[in-house]
Amino acid sequence: MSLPPNYDPQNPERPADPVGEVPPAPPVPPEAASVPHAPSADPAAPGYAGPAGYATPPAPGYPPAEPTPGYQGAPATGYPAAPPAPGYAPAPSVPGRGLAIAGLICAFLVAPVGIILSIIALVKLNKSGGSKGIAIAGLIIGILVTIAWIIGIIITVTLAAGLLGNVIEMCSQLGPGVWDVNGVTYTCE
């Protein structure tokens, strides 16, 4: 026969406590029974401990607290020193992040420069393990804008050549001089 895990050998008549039941509180020593309630934060209340950072006298029947070694902060209050609050230190700089942002901006304004900066940023971010999203976005946008510029230049040159071809053809038919044909003025030399 096995005994339950919470079997009390000093009181075998008492049934085992159900799982999860909280054991009763230990008896209160007589000195602690006469200690008044915890001090209030109200300065007018009796037992007010004073503002934070000032020493609080130890409770009756307890020795005063030892100061924390190496801590030069506020006077000892009987509690251990709190760790320093987390600061707002800047995040460590990741090599290539600034280039990635510059590449993204230049991808809209001067696309070939944006492509070059984004490629350099992508290489640096690969080496440092940083996030490559901005560099990739700058690279893609730079390539798309460059392609759009190339297509625009080709269309412009084609239209200009077509118009110039029409002018040359008309001038070869009309000869030198200034001519008005269907409301369009041609100056041929």
Overview of this protein structure:
By secondary structure, the chain is mostly helical. The chain has a domain at 97-188. 41% of the residues lie in helices and 5% in strands. The chain has 4 helices and 2 strands. The protein has helices at residues 30-33, 97-109, 111-128, 133-174, and strands at 177-181, 184-188. A two-stranded antiparallel sheet has the order 1-2. β1 (177-181) and β2 form a beta hairpin. α3 (111-128) packs antiparallel against α4. It starts with 29 loop residues before the first helix and ends with a strand.
Poorly predicted parts: none
Side by side, the strands of the main sheet go 1-2
Main pleated sheet: 2 strands, antiparallel
Structural class by SSE content: mainly alpha
Brief overview, please?
By secondary structure, this protein is mainly alpha-helical. Helices cover 41% and strands 5% of the residues. It has a domain at 97-188.
Structural features:
4 helices; mainly alpha; rod-shaped; 2 strands; 189 residues; 5% strand; 41% helix; two-stranded antiparallel ribbon
Describe how the helices and strands are arranged.
Elements: H1 30-33, H2 97-109, H3 111-128, H4 133-174, E1 177-181, E2 184-188
Antiparallel strand pairs: 1-2
Helix pairs in contact: 2-3, 2-4, 3-4
